Each structure stands twice: as structure tokens, then as C-alpha cells.
């Protein structure tokens, strides 16, 4: 599932391409992907300009000039492409938006994901349950320590809880725990203040590194995009079962925790 680095990478790439662009065409190949009848959705979007693109956690919000938002959640397997034509046949994409310059934004893999047209009020309502962004200036070390001190359960479960922090999922929770040298299955109540501070800095470090490297998704956004997916080969533990740890050489271990994949080094991550 695309996480904060992937969605922020999309936002930074799409903003200069889409801002000020007028939507001139809409194709919906899968009506279940949108939240209203196809004809209503299509007629409401034709002629609208995109003002800017906002990210909130794992979500993207395309702000339209009539006050509405296009709310995108890629969920599992969703991805985007942009250009004069998609990398696959148009029928392989659930929704396609065409713009005045002749380029199109292709929404693929949205079998579980969605693209909904909603009001500004509805967007606020839907986002209010999300926790703070890891890069929110108000989320200081002290604020983070206070926020995590009252949590129960395991660390990985807490990090992937979107109500705790918005944007972290399976991949980066494991990468963050490895960077902080903390076992992902550690009980949050066992974190001491020093470990919590280390975790705070690892969250920002790993997410920033991943975003700058293009995230771990393998689908390039544009034909000349060579950055997307660059972090895939930089993962220290995620999806590296039985491969040697880059630090100590111990084979990376794989387990499941509350139904989630969990990768860690049993030598480097013994506790807090």
C-alpha cells in the first residue's frame, strides 16, 4: 500500500503538472471507484480547474475551482500515471482525467481504492479522524513523547494506526523500527523516554529519505520518471526475509503481528 513517502512524491510531482489545468475529458471504466453516477461525476468535472494538490497522510486531495475536492485513496495496489497516453490500454485504468494540454492523469489498480468527488466540508469531516502528520511542526519531540506515552499494544500496531500518526504503513513502520534499533513487537508501554525520542527522529529520517528517493512503488508517473521506486532497493529490513542484515549480517526475520507483515533484525532490534 502506498504510504506517506509515495503519496508525497506523487504530490510534489503532480503539483507543477496539474495546478491551473482545466479538465477537458473524463473516462470512468469502473463506476464503483467513484461515489456518484458516472454522468453526474463526469459533467461536474468537465471544465473545472485544479487549484492545488494536497496530501493528508496516505490521501491526496485535488482542490477544484468550484470548492469541491477529488479525494484519492490508493489503498492496496493503486498507482498513477501521467502523460499523453498511459503505459497500458485505457481500459486497464479505472478513471482517466484529460486536461487542456492534451495530457491525462491515469488512475490504475483501484480495485479497493477510490476517487470521490466531495465538498470541502466533507473532506474536513473525513480527515478529522487522522492523527497528525509526522512532519507537522507542532509535533515536537515532547509532543510525540506525550502522545505515545498513553498508548497500549505493540509498537508496529501503534505506528500503523492512522489515528496515531497519519501516513505510516507496513513498510515504513519496519524501516523506522530498524533505524531506531527497537523491536517492532515491543509493547509501547515499555518504551522509555530515550527510546521514544530515538523513535521520533527515526520516523522523520526514514520518511524523508524514502520520499527523496521516490518511495518504493515501481510504477513511474511519467515516461521520463526515473526517480519513482528508488527506495525499493534501499529498504533495510522490509521484504528481506532471510537476507543478511546490512549492519550485523544476521538473517532478517519475518513474522506476522495482528495480521500484518513484520520484518526485523533479531540481533540489532532486541528491545528498546
TrEMBL record:
Catalysed reaction equations from the record: Hydrolysis of DNA containing ring-opened 7-methylguanine residues, releasing 2,6-diamino-4-hydroxy-5-(N-methyl)formamidopyrimidine
Describe the location of the FPG-type domain by residue ranges: 236-270
Domain of life of the organism encoding this protein: Bacteria
Which Pfam family name is an example for this entry?
Answer: H2TH
Identify the keywords attached in UniProt to this record, alphabetized. Answer: DNA damage, DNA repair, DNA-binding, Glycosidase, Hydrolase, Lyase, Metal-binding, Multifunctional enzyme, Zinc, Zinc-finger
Where is each Formamidopyrimidine-DNA glycosylase catalytic domain found? 2-114
Q: Which Gene3D superfamilies match?
A: 1.10.8.50, MutM-like, N-terminal
Its family? Answer: Belongs to the FPG family.
Protein name in the entry: DNA-formamidopyrimidine glycosylase family protein
Amino acid at each position: 500500500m502506498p504510504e506517506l513517502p509515495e503519496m508525497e512524491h506523487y504530490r510534489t510531482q503532480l503539483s507543477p503538472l496539474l495546478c491551473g489545468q482545466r479538465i477537458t475529458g473524463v473516462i470512468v471504466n469502473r463506476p464503483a471507484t467513484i461515489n456518484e453516477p458516472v454522468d453526474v461525476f463526469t459533467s461536474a468535472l468537465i471544465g473545472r480547474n485544479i487549484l492545488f494538490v494536497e496530501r493528508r497522510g496516505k490521501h491526496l486531495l485535488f482542490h477544484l475551482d468550484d470548492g469541491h475536492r477529488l479525494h484519492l485513496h490508493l489503498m492496496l495496489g493503486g498507482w498513477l500515471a501521467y502523460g499523453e497516453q498511459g503505459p497500458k490500454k485505457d481500459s486497464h485504468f479505472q478513471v482517466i482525467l484529460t486536461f487542456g494540454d492534451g495530457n491525462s492523469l491515469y488512475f490504475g489498480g483501484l480495485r479497493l481504492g477510490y476517487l470521490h468527488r466531495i465538498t470541502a466540508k466533507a473532506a474536513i469531516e473525513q480527515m478529522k479522524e487522522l492523527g497528525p502528520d509526522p512532519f507537522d511542526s507542532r509535533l515536537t519531540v515532547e509532543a510525540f513523547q506525550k502522545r505515545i506515552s498513553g498508548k497500549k499494544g505493540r509498537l508496529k500496531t501503534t505506528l500503523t494506526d492512522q489515528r496515531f500518526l497519519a501516513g505510516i504503513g507496513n513498510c515504513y513502520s519496519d524501516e523506522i523500527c530498524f533505524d531506531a534499533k527497537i523491536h517492532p513487537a515491543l509493547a509501547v508501554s515499555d518504551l522509555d523516554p530515550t527510546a521514544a525520542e530515538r523513535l521520533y527522529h527515526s520516523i522523520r529520517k526514514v520518511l524523508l529519505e524514502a520520499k527523496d528517493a521516490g518511495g518504493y512503488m515501481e510504477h513511474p508517473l511519467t515516461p521520463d520518471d526515473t526517480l519513482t521506486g528508488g527506495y525499493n532497493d534501499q529498504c533495510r529490513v522490509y521484504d528481506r526475509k532471510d537476507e543478511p542484515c546490512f549492519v550485523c549480517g544476521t538473517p532478517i526475520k519475518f513474522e506476522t503481528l495482528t495480521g500484518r507483515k513484520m520484518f526485523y533484525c533479531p540481533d540489532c532490534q532486541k528491545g528498546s
